[in-house]
Amino acid sequence: MSMFLDTAKIRVKAGNGGDGMVAFRREKYVPNGGPWGGDGGRGGNVVFVVDEGLRTLMDFRYNRHFKADSGEKGMTKGMYGRGAEDLRVHVPQGTTVRDAETGKVITDLIAHGQEFIVAHGGRGGRGNIRFATPKNPAPEISENGEPGQERELQLELKILADVGLVGFPSVGKSTLLSVITSAKPKIGAYHFTTIVPNLGMVRTQSGESFAVADLPGLIEGASQGVGLGTQFLRHIERTRVILHVIDMSASEGRDPYEDYLAINKELESYNLRLMERPQIIVANKMDMPESQENLKTFKEKLTANYDEFEELPAIFPISGLTKQGLATLLDATAELLDKTPEFPIYDESDMEEEAYYGFDEEEKAFEISRDDDATWVLSGEKLMKLFNMTNFDRDESVMKFARQLRGMGVDEALRARGAKDGDLVRIDKFEFEFVD
After folding, report:
1. Is 195 known to sit in a ligand binding site?
2. Among candidate residues 286, 319, 339, the one where a domain is terminated
3. 284 in a known ligand binding site
4. Do 182 and 84 have their domain in common?
């Protein structure tokens, strides 16, 4: 069974903030000590850290839930609770993180040691020392900690390679990789020997070096889910140069030029941007009979389908088996890499907008619906945040929450919807009577 895993869906939960404390200073010879309850500590963030030692998302196959610790509760003497440490989750280079609900890209992690907070911890609740005023010098009010952010994420690994080898199965990609790098891909005399992407480093005779990825063989219809290609086409998106390997001996009974067109069509169907990457045509198996004649025919067909002023892709005849022509191919690849820029794989429409923590005038603070049992149900992000941070064990906190609801216009909105005195109102699992 393959141990390569390049997609995973996980759930992350940042830590809740610690609850604030209600306490009063009670010491001998200190009359009217006043409030002394401290604030809760901040909850831990969930942080993704790029680790160049990881090659797959295998660690997320069985461990799909990541939860950071919550902050400590506030303490007496006005002392803050301890903030929780961040939960650091290691991911391989080239990991794209998407919000599973919206599909938007949250971040693209490509540099070793790069860090990104994917879920923010909640702030600590305030203790009663924070609520003292001249009118109320001894408040029995405290806040619960703010809930930590919780979200479902889709992880997608796109391996980091400068050059990608593409082509039909059994055209010699794995053999080529094995002779130009120290990689040891499994090679067999049957289709789909390569079932996972293989990566290797090339060093040319002139001292240049670059990373090459051998991707599992594509077949016609790969971009629509046929064969193995659809699973691994994503890995070519980060490459800057494509080496298009073609079996010029036609040992499989296919026409080399038709192979060339079919693979390019699959690349274009999967992502039109892949056609922006410069291609080098690698005419492989030139040690086989009829290869020279097939190469001549291939060049004629290629030239006939290009306009007079269009630049033809470079063609390099090689033999992976006898190592014929490899040095020239690698030097040309290194030269092309030097003048080829990085290609952005996401545009602004793919990216998630940065979080805005200010007040949005257009955003509704609450919503009202009605349950089957005629109970009025209040919901909404802002309202639920206030609800979760209210300490319902303290009467003063409950009264403060009631004043906040009134200030948000909840009473008026319920009255306008037809709520009458004595009607039940529910927020989450908490119920109370509406008083007109």
Report:
1. yes
2. 339
3. yes
4. no
